[in-house]
Amino acid sequence: MSTFTVFLILIVLVAFLLVVVIMVQNPKGGGLSSSFGGGGTQQLGGVQKTTDFLDKSTWTLATLLLVLILVSNISLFQNMGATQSRSIDAVERTSPLPTTPVQQTPVE
Length: 108
Known about the structure:
Layout: H1 3-24, H2 31-35, H3 50-94
């Protein structure tokens, strides 16, 4: 398994988690904390802090996704460069050495 494949799997996983975290949030500011009745007081062991957790996890996952994409791009180009140099070396080893043509003198 190549390095790029590992990064691709991680990118898909982080993107899926990011979609899940964004879908849990309420666009009007209530989010998951309003579903549990955490309007003004702290209930259920810190549900009031749920919005802060979802906000921080969204930014963290978005940053991680960006970093993974950039690093995978670098690893892709490094793998391509290594492949190209190996194939060029193989062609140089297998090709016969050029020979100089023998010139014939014309017979009179």
